[in-house]
Amino acid sequence: MLNIIEGKTNPPLKAVIYGPEGIGKSTLASHAPGALFIDTEGGTAHMDVRRIQRPSSWEELISTIDEVAKTPGICQTLILDTADWAEMQCIKDICAKYKVSGLESFGYGKGYTYVGEEMARLLAACDKVVAAGMNVVIIAHAKMRKQELPDEQGAFDRWEMKLSKQAAPLMKEWPDLLLFLNYKTLVVSSENSTKKATGGKRVMYTSHSPVWDAKNRFELPEEMDMDFSGIAKLFKDSAAPAAPAEKPIDTLRAMMEKAGVTPADIQKVVSDKGHYAADVPMESYSDKFISGWLIKYWPQVLKLINNSNQMKEDFENE
Predict the structure, then answer these.
(1) What percent of the chain has pLDDT over 90?
(2) Which residue in 75, 159, 160, 178 has the most C-beta neighbors within 10 A?
């Protein structure tokens, strides 16, 4: 039977942010809720953010992302900073694996095919993080490339992600939000009709243009001031991280406090039943034993403790 779902589902956000160096890509991303950085280039060293130690290899990077997906509550937003430095590590590991000096050693285009396949693995790992309820933001640098038009219409400069021709299309297709950040120069006309640049401001572009790639699925304005408040609402509806589960020992302590039971009472009944020696503290009991015996059979355990205490009291009164 088909499982048909109607209406908006509000999944976590998948975003790619790119722009020229120094414009503030990492700073913008750092305002995302519950941000956790994987800093592949060391660019967050002077920022007050949470970060995972820089992965030393491509496989370690993939494993790190997989580990985040398996760790509920570790963050609300995972930020990869940056994609182009990650790709450099990818190329380095591919060359080391096949014992070649560079991608050109594979023959025409073959080496870059490997890069495309590995970058697809990276995005698949990020999809696991999204499936686990966390936003993912990938940061990339931008550079100018010459764009040739057909039919001899000429050429012009165009901003593109600083990635290989195999990786860049994947990085553009993957997100729900592709932001291009740039400086917008303000030009004014003087009294003698000459034009003069008077400064500029940083802006975010959310829609495609002949000179840059951008997109969004949220009906955002085509141009916005570079302020996180303009996109904050896209993160708010994302699933919040699950609260860490209470440890069995904490659950047991709460039950003991309610029943007026001491650690010594627990240690005695556990020792009498032959599970642990009498001098072993509760903190050394395994979670499985605490959950599967003490908590599961708490009424019976409590009865054993009360009977033991009663016998002790009767003996002392004789």
Answers:
(1) 67
(2) 178
